[in-house]
Design goal:
Distance between the termini: 87 Å
Number of helices: 5
Helix content: 25-40%
Strand content: 25-35%
Structural class: alpha+beta
Radius of gyration: 23 Å
Order of helices and strands: EHEEEHEHEEHEEH
Strand order of the largest sheet: 1-2-3-5-4
Number of strands: 9
Shape: globular
Length: about 270
């Protein structure tokens, strides 16, 4: 007597195999006539929109309302930031305060990587980058035994380095809205290279096709670079050229942030 024995523990393959689909190699992005796909020149930044106090307006009668908040747009990039403090620090220092940052992508924010509601290792690393870029601009000695916390959420991302730059600019606006004493406002810009020329404020496809990316956080009034981050290889002359171009772009971003903060001070209720 024979019977068909079926092993339930074995995963049976399909009856017909299908050839896998391979991802084509990333082709370099071409810039005909020195213009990009969105019509910008190589050194042109995407349009910037800033709004301070959006979270405080929604939590007017709440005890958890932040001290300051900001919403920042740059092209398709959308970032929000809430600043709490100065308040009692977890690690109190009798001489100087501390600045901590929490950075997280929304699950639907990235088209280039699947995100979870749980913070990943790259988000924790980015939070450290933001802390080191912003902390030199804060007068922490004016807040002994206190802690200033910034919570950044990326609503939509279009370029990893460009998103980090937007987060730095958003934190600067939120700190100003919270009334935190600053030496200067930190402005940031990123650039990417295809081994022949540098392109400012790149989108995600442009960053994917580049061989090197660079980010600069800069205080224009103090003429001081607070943070520099580079991914990829470049010569010393190329790096110096990119840093100079980034500082020039940071100065333009700084002018936009300062102009908005000044106008918001002149308008009551904003």
């Amino acid at each position: 007597m024979t019977s068909n024995i079926y092993d339930r523990r074995r995963v049976n393959g399909p009856a017909r195999s299908v050839e896998p689909v391979y991802i084509d190699a990333i082709e370099p992005v071409a810039f005909p006539d020195g213009l990009r796909n969105d019509g910008r020149s190589l050194d042109q930044l995407r349009p910037i929109y800033i709004k301070t106090g959006p979270l405080a307006a929604q939590q007017t009668f709440s005890s958890t309302a932040p001290s300051g908040s900001a919403y920042y747009e740059q092209g398709k990039i959308r970032v929000s930031c809430a600043v709490y403090g100065p308040r009692q620090g977890r690690k109190s220092n009798p001489r100087i305060g501390s600045f901590d940052c929490d950075f997280q992508y929304a699950p639907f924010s990235c088209s280039w990587k699947k995100r979870s509601h749980i913070r990943g290792a790259d988000e924790k690393e980015t939070a450290q980058v933001l802390e080191q870029a912003i902390a030199p601009a804060i007068r922490l000695e004016a807040y002994p035994k206190a802690c200033i916390d910034a919570y950044v959420t990326v609503i939509e991302s279009d370029g990893k380095f460009a998103t980090i730059s937007a987060a730095i600019n958003c934190i600067s606006a939120a700190l100003a809205d919270a009334g935190i004493e600053l030496y200067d406002t930190v402005a940031s810009c990123s650039m990417s290279s295809d081994s022949s020329r540098w392109v400012a404020d790149c989108s995600q496809p442009e960053e994917d096709a580049s061989s090197c990316s660079l980010l600069v956080a800069y205080m224009p009034s103090a003429d001081e670079i607070t943070y520099l981050l580079q991914n990829g290889k470049s010569t010393l002359d190329q790096t110096e050229q990119a840093v100079q171009a980034c500082t020039n772009s940071c100065t333009r971003v700084y002018a936009v942030i300062s102009r908005y903060l000044q106008s918001s001070m002149e308008q009551p209720g904003t």
